[in-house]
Specification:
Elements (H helix, E strand, L loop, with lengths): L1 H4 L8 H10 L5 H4 L8 H17 L7 H12 L8 H16 E16 L5 E13 L9 E14 L5 E11 L6
Antiparallel strand pairs: 1-2, 2-3, 3-4
Helix pairs in contact: 5-6
Length: 179
């Protein structure tokens, strides 16, 4: 570049200028190439919806206590949730629930929203309508019943980068669908 300023016969080529411009903001390299993709509110809603669906539909898929602990509780709940009432209720009631119910399906999730959590991660809120199928259906009884719950899920990534529940609350609603 100094030669170009002195009137030399060899001007600085465009690629050299581009190379110089690319190396100039060294302190901003981390910003230019993020290691993790940015997560926006739509991504957070999709993550929350996915975890809520797994929470609902996977509950009856595990028939042994060991498989339930490994494939359900350890997959969805962070270790910090071990003393949480929802975690305890799932662990205590799972085998009894398996005797009475066959499966649960998400009918719909609505009223979704997300907000940042002070402790990190985010809070996903959504209203879940689910169908839970009876294991034994009596004559003239429907094969399933509906329930509706308003969830607030604190979701963060664990040390392995997996999204998990770090806190959870829900409120059941009285729900009579049009049948």
């Amino acid at each position: 570049m100094l030669q170009a300023c002195n009137g030399s016969e060899q001007p600085v080529s465009a690629p050299e200028v581009n190379n110089h411009q690319q190396t100039k903001p060294v302190e901003n390299e981390a910003e230019a190439e993020p290691t993790k993709p940015a997560v926006n509110d739509n991504d957070r809603k999709a993550i929350g919806r996915d975890l809520l669906t797994k929470y609902t539909e996977s509950y009856y898929k595990f028939t042994t206590t060991e498989a339930f602990d490994e494939g359900y509780l350890n997959e969805l709940f962070d270790e910090s949730m071990l003393d949480h009432p929802v975690y305890h209720a799932a662990k205590i009631h799972h085998q009894t629930d398996l005797k009475n119910y066959d499966k649960a399906e998400v009918d719909k999730i609505e009223s979704e929203s997300v907000e940042p959590a002070e402790e990190g991660g985010f809070i996903y809120k959504g209203t879940l309508t689910e169908r839970t199928y009876h294991r034994k259906v009596e004559e003239n009884d429907p094969p399933y019943f509906y329930s509706k719950k308003d969830f607030a899920l604190h979701i963060k990534q664990d040390e392995n980068g997996k999204y998990k529940f770090f806190d959870m609350s829900f409120e059941k609603r009285i729900y009579f669908p049009d049948m």
